[in-house]
Amino acid sequence: MIELIDICRTFAVGGQEVRAMDHVSLTIGAGEYLSIMGPSGSGKSTLLNIIGLLDTPNSGTYSLDGRDVTSLRDEELAAMRSLKIGFIFQFFHLIPRFTATENIELPLMLAGVPIKRRRERSAALIDSFGLGNRRHHHPDELSGGQRQRVAIARAVINQPAVLLADEPTGNLDRSSGAEIIELLEELNQGGQTLVIVTHDPEIGERAGRRVRVVDGRLASDSGG
Amino acid sequence: MRPLDTVRYGLSSLGSNRVRTALMLLAMSIGVAAVVLLTGIGNGARLYIVDKFAALGTNLVIVIPGRSETANNTPATLIGETPRDLTLEDALATMRSELVHRVAPLNIGELNAVRQGRERQVPVLGTTAAFLDIHHLNIARGASLPEEDWDIARPVCVLGSKVYQELFGREPALGELIRLGGYRCRVVGVLATEGRSLGFDTQELVIVPVAFAQMLFNTSGLFRILVEGKDLQSLARLKKHIVGTIANRHYGEEDVTIITQDSILATFDKILRSMTLTVAGIAAISLVVAGILIMNVMLMSVAQRTAEIGLCKALGGTRGHIMMMLVCEALLLSTIGGILGLLLGFAGAWGIAQIYPELTTTPPLWAVAAAMAVALGTGLIFSLLPAGRAARLDPIRALARH
To answer: How far is the C-alpha of B120 from the C-alpha of B289, rounded, in Å?
Structure first.
């Protein structure tokens, strides 16, 4: 499903080259539940961004679903992101002037799905995510846990094969964080590949496969 | 992304910052309203003046002695430098054509008019009764100049109303004598109080028969000849006829200059048109300023919404999508602002028409179209830079900024 071979990524910071990814190879199978842990600045977010096609490696190859995506053009990358990948962020990144429904439908809107079909698909998700009485609320009228639910609904509305979550509980209290993790695990059980970047060892330990990143290298990998 | 969604997205973005949007709309609408209103006024003034000119008779041809080689209206033509004068016989000769309706020879000079110790310098016009008809000058009291052979130097005069008042006060003037230059002449009529007519204030004129004027000024030449054609269509043929007739009499030399009212009219029309354009151009600058404002606001809006733009990219938005969303937002601003401006401009034009009913202040269609086009154009051009900047945003950094 996801196959990274010898990936390098360097950033120029103040005239100095910083190697955020140093010859990383990683294969993730369809339906896997993987956590990426490591100290701050170790390169775990960079790894997630490369998997999510938001960042392109300086060298190495990345194939997603058997297709080499290392050198795709902007439109093709956008299409891949739209169809294959769902992002979940620490800060939710909901558009404040949109209602919950509109936020959830944003990927479909960008993909040009007609509004009627969007409503059908978002309505089903809203109900199954327990947001039924919140569909017309704006993000500032929602609790943190509800916001993250909306964000997850947005991530899965296009039924992507891969869910990428960057510190999904970092901005939530313990109980709503636990609910969010359970929701993500449910989705994973439904067949979607789940990759979580986290600081929290408790959350990281739950994953079926745990990867540690230190100084841009894979320090340990519990499986694969 | 569907066009309707792009529009909806733009509207929601504009709606999220109402004060900023309202200020932008104000700037844009003032610009458009200024163009519409100023061109409306300019156009109204042009129509008004052209209309007044046309009332003077557009099928009038003015013959001036002397040939100007370069332009029609140089000072030399007004002074009338010429080897050969225009004479009464020339004027009579031009009359012999079915194209000619009326002919009025004209002599002009300045003389002292004296009556019982009251003295005043007045412009004296030597002509025939036809002149008064051509220029729509009405007689208030008495009669016009006598209709008789042009070469009879009968010492009579028609006074302008102001001259009459200054010489006679409230006393009756008909049949009385005044001194003009060295000669005595009898007042036969007084002009009605009427406005100005092309260059002379008719209220200050003294009009005498042309032959008498030639005697007064001691000349055999004419200042000019006015020829009124039967209709506008044959004006070109009339001009040819006049030049030909006079050239025949002047040993084949075409030594006169012909001015038609319509060429004067055309000149005025041109001047006023370019003035309207200039004013419109100045107003359009305010539109461009509004465009620059749009650019500023869009840049600010992009800076404020980096996370949102990054998000759209992460969710499958292409650079094209982002460009389109922001350009659409700017176009919405300028369209709404433009429409508001049109309403404002038309309302203003209507208001002015209420105050000055003789002015038709309807803005010309081209100005309305141009104002909208400039509004949309500036909206488009000045949103390209901010939109391009947004499209090139690195989604990772955009999302990280929080």
So the answer is: 58
**With an 8 Å Cβ cutoff, are A110 and B315 in contact?**
yes
Q: Does residue A4 have a pLDDT over 90?
A: yes
Residue A37 lies in a domain: yes
What are the phi and psi torsion angles at A197 (to 5°)?
-95, 130
B315 → closest Cβ in A55, A98, A107: A107
Instruction: Name the residue facing B316 among A89, A98, A107 (closest C-beta).
Output: A107
B138 phi and psi, to 5 degrees? Answer: -100, 150
Q: Do A114 and B2 touch (CB under 8 A)?
A: yes
Q: How far apart are CA A18 and CA B386, in angstroms?
A: 30
Task: Count Cβ atoms within 10 A of the Cβ of residue B6 and give its class: 0-12 exposed, 13-18 middle, 19 or more buried.
Answer: buried
Residue A191 falls inside a structural domain? yes
Angle formed at CA B273 by CA B272 and CA B278, multiple of 5 degrees: 95
CATH number of the domain where residue A207 is located: 3.40.50.300
Provide the domain count of chain A. 1
Assigned domain for A91 exists: yes
Encode pLDDT of B251-264 as tens digits: 877 788 888 877 77
Specify if A81 maps to a domain. Answer: yes
